[in-house]
């Protein structure tokens, strides 16, 4: 018989989970103004808010952490990380940062100016926030089929090369800061980008003289999808695929809290020494000296080790299988989810799930709230709240996407936990007709409002 799959690791430490009551959760979410970011973590049963910084480090990562060199300048931990980044990504120059949004802040301080356009594939919240904070515009050039949640396209994260060329053709070169491609495409449902698409972007970048940057938080998961879905890559090693992916880019930003399986850390990779030197000034201003950049030596050591562990095929297969298990359970229950399933999360289509809730009342947010009340599951809204207001008109941006993202931390939960999550969502699905109204905003920040917004039930 065919042997069943299993996680390629053993459990060495456990953390107890408090089983709260429904009555407790109803009080807690109201006190949090119906914003799941405002909840205390010990009020959460299973935390799927994000896969960023929430993974479980290995014994080897903990051992590397204990050997961290905390010298202010020139620490051995910096050189360990430099060697790992060179081997895994191929970039000769890098700057450490404390996390991915810090990497964006440093790099965009060099590249992005007021009035610029930054085309790409569905820029995620912090990326768009950094662009719009600088009074520039993020231009979404994702393929149209990405918005058909049921379509079975293997690379829904792809850039539409015709859309991208239109932007490049119709605007002067000096107005295009860079092209940013996110791998995998989080906003579009954790969907991968094909190697052929990356090659196509590179060709357009060369033709129009524009820099090409990869937002690389989930680069290893993207490589796994290329290996398992794209013709010609089945017999290639994950790290070979990773090197080819990065060979097409001029630079990269990295939130290491995802595919490098650490709790804190990030970096910027550079092909060009001149760009590295310009960014170094901002790194020193915003983050710290260029050989630590907001990270402790122990965290750099753990990150260096995590880059190798996160690009292991068996580990990636186990992780993506577990995400797929959650998606399959939900699909079996009739719950509308984005397909094919992404690498790091399952996305519930709230517009289909809650057809009676008007789009102006944040259906994805009220669905996330109801899932929390039902079983203590914390997810996050990918919809109108996260889309923010238009920077000119200040009207809500309705993108047509109202998704609840359930992001699975790496090496943390068992398949039994996934079964529980799916059962909780089914219970809400069974009573969906009783959910007819949503939420309204009573307090919000001018940018990236979803992190701190306060709402009330209608």
CATH architecture of the largest domain: 3-Layer(aba) Sandwich
User: How many beta-strand segments?
Assistant: 14
- Give the overall shape: globular
Which strands sit side by side, in order, in the main sheet?
A: 2-8-7-6-5
Helix content: 25-40%
Query: Could you say which structural class the secondary elements and strand pairing correspond to?
Result: alpha/beta
> Can you tell me the number of structural domains?
2
* Name of the CATH class of the largest domain: Alpha Beta
- Work out the helix count: 16
Mean pLDDT: 94
What percentage of the residues does DSSP assign to strands (E)?
A: 5-15%
Q: Which segments are poorly predicted (pLDDT under 50) over 5 or more consecutive residues?
A: none
Q: Under CATH, the topology of the largest domain is which?
A: Aspartate Aminotransferase, domain 2
Distance between the termini: 55 Å
The radius of gyration over CA amounts to 21 Å
């Amino acid at each position: 018989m065919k042997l069943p799959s299993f996680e390629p690791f053993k459990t060495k430490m456990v953390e107890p989970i408090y089983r709260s009551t429904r009555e407790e959760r109803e009080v807690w979410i109201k006190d949090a103004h119906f914003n799941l970011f405002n909840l205390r973590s010990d009020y959460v049963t299973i935390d799927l808010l994000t896969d960023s910084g929430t993974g479980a480090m290995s014994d080897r990562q903990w051992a590397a952490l204990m050997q961290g060199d905390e010298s202010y300048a020139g620490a051995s931990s910096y050189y360990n990380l430099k060697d790992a980044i060179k081997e895994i990504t191929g970039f000769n120059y890098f700057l450490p940062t404390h996390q991915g949004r810090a990497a964006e802040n440093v790099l965009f301080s060099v590249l992005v100016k007021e009035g610029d356009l930054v085309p790409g594939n569905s820029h995620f919240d912090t990326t768009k926030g950094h662009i719009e904070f600088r009074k520039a515009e993020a231009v979404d050039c994702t393929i149209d089929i990405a918005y058909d949640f049921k379509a079975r396209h293997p690379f829904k994260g792809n850039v539409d090369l015709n859309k991208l060329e239109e932007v490049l053709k119709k605007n002067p070169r000096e107005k295009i800061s860079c092209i940013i491609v996110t791998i995998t495409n989080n906003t579009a449902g954790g969907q991968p980008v094909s190697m052929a698409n990356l090659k196509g972007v590179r060709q357009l970048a060369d033709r129009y003289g524009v820099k090409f940057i990869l937002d690389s938080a989930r680069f290893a998961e993207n490589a796994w999808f290329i290996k398992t879905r794209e013709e010609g890559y089945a017999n290639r090693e994950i790290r070979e695929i990773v090197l080819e992916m990065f060979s097409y880019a001029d630079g990269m930003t990295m939130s290491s809290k995802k595919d490098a399986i650490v709790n804190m850390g990030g970096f910027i990779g550079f092909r060009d020494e001149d760009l590295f030197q310009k960014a170094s000034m901002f790194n020193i201003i915003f983050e710290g000296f260029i050989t630590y950049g907001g990270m402790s030596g122990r965290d750099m050591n753990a990150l260096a080790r995590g880059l190798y562990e996160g690009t292991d095929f068996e580990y990636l297969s186990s992780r993506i299988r577990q995400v797929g298990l959650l998606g399959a359970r939900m699909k079996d229950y009739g719950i509308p989810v984005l397909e094919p399933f992404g690498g790091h999360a399952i996305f519930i289509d709230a517009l289909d799930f809650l057809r009676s809730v008007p789009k102006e009342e944040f259906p994805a947010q009220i669905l996330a709230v109801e899932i929390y009340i039902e079983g203590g599951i914390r997810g996050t809204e990918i919809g109108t709240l996260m889309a923010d207001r238009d920077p000119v008109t200040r009207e809500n941006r309705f993108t047509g996407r109202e998704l609840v993202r359930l992001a699975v931390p790496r090496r943390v939960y068992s398949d039994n936990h996934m079964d529980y999550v799916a059962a909780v969502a089914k219970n809400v699905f069974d009573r969906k007709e009783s959910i007819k109204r949503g939420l309204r905003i009573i307090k919000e920040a001018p940018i990236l409002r979803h992190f701190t917004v306060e709402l009330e039930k209608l």
